[in-house]
Design brief:
CATH superfamily of the largest domain: Winged helix-like DNA-binding domain superfamily/Winged helix DNA-binding domain
CATH topology of the largest domain: Arc Repressor Mutant, subunit A
Number of helices: 6
Number of domains: 2
CATH class of the largest domain: Mainly Alpha
Shape: elongated
CATH architecture of the largest domain: Orthogonal Bundle
Radius of gyration: 21 Å
Strand order of the largest sheet: 3-4-5-6
Structural class: alpha+beta
Distance between the termini: 50 Å
Oligomer: single chain
């Protein structure tokens, strides 16, 4: 019921684009006929959700889809200079020597190194590392950054005053 083309055709086109190979596609539609659902899955849909649906149920289904999708992604880790992060084993290597970080420190370091030079705001860090379900104090990030800096023994994590942090090579 889209204006220019239907969802089946849009999904078919998206699945032919190499840049969109890892895109999750979920249909949210008033059409709940069996043939419509089958057509959606046949062209590459990851889920087919019929309306009406309660908003919290929809949100839970999308979160489940993203968990599954993210779990299937091969994360090779990050290698920057003499620092290597193995996300599958939760290990950090500096100059080839392994270092063990507590979970939140590891996730914070992995986030910062995922895009070297990008400034991550404090709010973004809190949301991505701690999530929205847990309330933490303002100084929590600072304490974790200090501990990471002590372990790495360098100044690759920069403070951007009043904004957040970034990882520089």
């Amino acid at each position: 019921m889209m204006p220019v083309m239907d969802g089946i055709e849009a999904c078919r086109i998206m699945r032919t684009q190499p840049a969109l190979n890892n895109t999750v596609i979920a249909f949210l539609t008033a059409r709940n006929e069996e043939y419509s659902q089958i057509a959606g899955f046949d062209v590459g849909a990851d889920d087919y959700i019929s309306k009406p649906i309660k908003p919290r149920v929809l949100l839970s289904r999308i979160k489940a889809l993203l968990r599954r999708f993210n779990g299937n992604q091969k994360d090779q880790g990050v290698k920057i200079g003499n620092l290597e992060i193995d996300r599958e084993r939760y290990l950090v290597y500096k100059n080839g020597e392994s270092m063990i970080f507590p979970r939140k420190e590891f996730e914070l370091l992995a986030l910062l190194t995922s895009k070297p030079g990008k400034v991550f705001t404090r709010e973004d860090i809190l949301q991505r590392v701690w999530g929205t379900d847990i309330i933490v104090g303002d100084r929590t990030i600072d304490v974790h950054i200090r501990k990471i800096r002590e372990k790495l023994g360098d100044d690759s994590i920069k403070t951007v005053k009043g904004i957040g942090y970034k990882f520089d090579i």
